[in-house]
């Protein structure tokens, strides 16, 4: 198996960078990784593997393996900040435009799928791509098999707002016009790579979110082996809230509603800090009450890009994480 990218050495007497595990998927995880890479190279991304749309979904159906897209995005977020690293990041993120079967396939998805076929080992394949990028950290799949997300959704039947409809698939759940009540995974107890459990067990901090709440954040807490590791680790946990509700998935959700859903899906999870941008908080006292129910303090920091879009600024988010980690030391 290929070795993980080596962490940079720290000078004698210098404080050691924290070991951080970031959980999520898609653009949300890429945002947290883009910030955390400024604070530590002892960084492990644990990525959802339920994507069933686009290039990832096509490769998943055709090859029967894990969907590589969210894993590719996490690797790209950790690339070395050099011409070499940025060039290979752009290669990974490039999408083909054609009239044929390559249309909208991402180069990185094809590269990752190729390595998986050659090596027969998903973790080793991701480590090889990390080495190519000079990645500041390691990327691991949340489970060793592809997952399906199944949601109970309210409001899809006209005239029956309380009727529950089962919606299956990450893309379908993320784009539903109803209100998601609960989610679950198929298979319900998937195998988890041992490297994931070890990373969580030895971490100083676990960062959960931001990201699509029902399809990228909560699924980590519904994998029994991973949930068990998260409840047993001595690491502190920081939940990073989104900057805005997401159409379909969390329409109408307040900041505190995100925490209430989190508590309902993971009753054994201990949270130490909830990080939120004031722009996303309409009732600070309600947010603090919901956080306190999880055992957490609330840290309010401006972490948005400030351009009117619900995007995190990497440097602002890094500064906020630095303060959270320093306060929890």
From TrEMBL:
Keywords: Cytoplasm. It comes from Kineococcus halophytocola. Belongs to the gluconeogenesis factor family. The keyword Hydrolase does not apply. Pfam families: CofD. It comes from the Bacteria. Required for morphogenesis under gluconeogenic growth conditions. CDD domains: YvcK_like. PANTHER family: GLUCONEOGENESIS FACTOR-RELATED (PTHR30135:SF3), UNCHARACTERIZED PROTEIN YVCK-RELATED (PTHR30135). This is Putative gluconeogenesis factor. InterPro entries: CofD, CofD-like_dom_sf, Gluconeogen_factor. It is found in: Cytoplasm.
């Amino acid at each position: 198996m290929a070795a993980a990218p080596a962490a940079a050495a720290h000078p004698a007497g210098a404080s050691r960078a924290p070991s951080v595990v970031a959980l999520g998927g898609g653009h949300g995880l890429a945002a947290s990784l883009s910030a955390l890479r400024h604070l530590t190279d002892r960084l492990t991304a644990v990525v959802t593997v339920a994507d069933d749309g686009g290039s990832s979904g096509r490769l998943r159906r055709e090859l029967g393996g894990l969907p590589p897209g969210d894993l590719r995005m996490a690797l790209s977020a950790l690339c070395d900040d050099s011409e070499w690293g940025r060039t290979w990041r752009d290669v990974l993120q490039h999408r083909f435009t054609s009239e044929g079967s390559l249309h909208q396939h991402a180069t990185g998805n094809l590269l990752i799928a190729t390595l998986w076929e050659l090596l027969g080992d998903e973790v080793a394949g991701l480590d090889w791509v990390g080495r190519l990028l000079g990645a500041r950290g390691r990327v691991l799949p949340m489970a060793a098999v592809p997952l399906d997300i199944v949601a109970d959704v309210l409001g899809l039947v006209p005239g029956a707002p309380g009727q529950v409809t089962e919606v299956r698939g990450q893309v379908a759940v993320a784009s539903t016009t109803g209100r998601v009540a609960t989610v679950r995974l198929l298979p319900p107890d998937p195998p988890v790579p041992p490297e994931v459990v070890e990373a969580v067990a030895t971490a100083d901090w676990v960062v959960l979110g931001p990201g699509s709440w029902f399809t990228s954040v909560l699924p980590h807490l519904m994998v029994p082996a991973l949930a068990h590791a998260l409840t047993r680790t001595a690491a502190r946990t920081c939940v990073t809230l989104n900057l805005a509700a997401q159409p379909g998935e969390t329409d109408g959700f307040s900041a505190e509603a995100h925490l209430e859903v989190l508590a309902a899906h993971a009753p054994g999870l201990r949270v130490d800090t909830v990080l939120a941008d004031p722009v996303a908080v309409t009732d600070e006292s309600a947010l603090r009450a919901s956080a306190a129910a999880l055992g957490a303090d609330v840290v309010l920091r401006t972490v948005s890009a400030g351009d009117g879009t619900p995007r995190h600024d990497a440097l602002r988010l890094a500064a906020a994480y630095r303060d959270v980690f320093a306060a929890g030391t």
